[in-house]
Amino acid sequence: MKPILIGIIAAFFFAFTFVLNATMEAGGGSWIWSASLRYIFMIPFLLIIVLSRKNLKPLLQEMGRNKRAWLVWSFVGFGLFYTPLCFAAAYSPGWLIAGTWQITIIAGTLLAPLFLITIYSKKETVQIRGKIPLRGLLVSLIILAGVSLMQLEHVAAVSSATLWFGFIPVIVAAFAYPLGNRKMMDICGGRLDAYQRVLGMTLASLPFWLILSFYGLLTVGGPTASQSFQTLIVAISSGVIATVLFFKATDLVRGNMQKLGAVEATQSMEVLFALIGEILFLSIALPSVLSIFGILLVMFGMMLHSYISVRTKKSVMQLNA
């Protein structure tokens, strides 16, 4: 239950992304700066944390042993995750993005066959191709059904541009985030803690953010003071606090696909937290009875996922590429 609780807390801080990105777009800020500034602002905070724990040297040594993998999977896990989310914010409201983002619940489950699993026994060690945990997938579908009900009443009022530019990028992000996260867990092999791994991926993705920033200067000019401040809040809440908590939760269940799926399912709570945030700060209308039923269905799916993960008795597995 501890990893699931940590995942829910992470979802609360992740929700700041959807609310503040919607606020920045409403204020005329560009998605380019919403994306790039978040990760640039994260670096000083993460450096202070890792340096205070005297863990910077082991991180740099680990990155030096596999530079290409760090660059590629950090770009996937951070670049292909957050840039599409910010781009989508220019076409869709925060609640719709948060709802679509829950596709990551199923995406994380569907990625299992991409990894080899090492099973240790007294007699031998064997590697098998990961399988999709059907029970976890079914529960994820329940959660997704609840999310769909929450958003159903709004879809009819959305334009075709919103559906394409506000939907497809989020789908890309929903698959990129768990893929990058799992590959980096695989590469690190438990040798780095969550703080080191987030800092390492942020540093490895920095060339992409600098290129995106340069593109922003040429096309839309520099960010406003208001957008810079709001992006700083997102960097601290979502980029540092939420990401570290989520990585910590996934580290606790590394190698157990069933429990890993349960932790990733906790991110469905982002919809509830984002909805509350938009009601409080953006004065959106209260949810309908249908949306409330969807929220309850999500809660039920969360509890069922937790129950299955606790009852599952499987050998501890270690992911290997």
From TrEMBL:
<feature type="transmembrane region" description="Helical">
    <location>
        <begin position="268"/>
        <end position="286"/>
    </location>
</feature>
<dbReference type="InterPro" id="IPR032713">
    <property type="entry name" value="EmrE"/>
</dbReference>
<feature type="transmembrane region" description="Helical">
    <location>
        <begin position="229"/>
        <end position="247"/>
    </location>
</feature>
<feature type="transmembrane region" description="Helical">
    <location>
        <begin position="132"/>
        <end position="150"/>
    </location>
</feature>
<keyword id="KW-1133">Transmembrane helix</keyword>
<feature type="transmembrane region" description="Helical">
    <location>
        <begin position="31"/>
        <end position="51"/>
    </location>
</feature>
<feature type="transmembrane region" description="Helical">
    <location>
        <begin position="198"/>
        <end position="217"/>
    </location>
</feature>
<feature type="transmembrane region" description="Helical">
    <location>
        <begin position="292"/>
        <end position="310"/>
    </location>
</feature>
<feature type="transmembrane region" description="Helical">
    <location>
        <begin position="156"/>
        <end position="177"/>
    </location>
</feature>
<feature type="transmembrane region" description="Helical">
    <location>
        <begin position="97"/>
        <end position="120"/>
    </location>
</feature>
<keyword id="KW-0472">Membrane</keyword>
<protein>
    <submittedName>
        <fullName>Drug/metabolite transporter (DMT)-like permease</fullName>
    </submittedName>
</protein>
<dbReference type="Pfam" id="PF13536">
    <property type="entry name" value="EmrE"/>
</dbReference>
<feature type="transmembrane region" description="Helical">
    <location>
        <begin position="71"/>
        <end position="91"/>
    </location>
</feature>
<keyword id="KW-0812">Transmembrane</keyword>
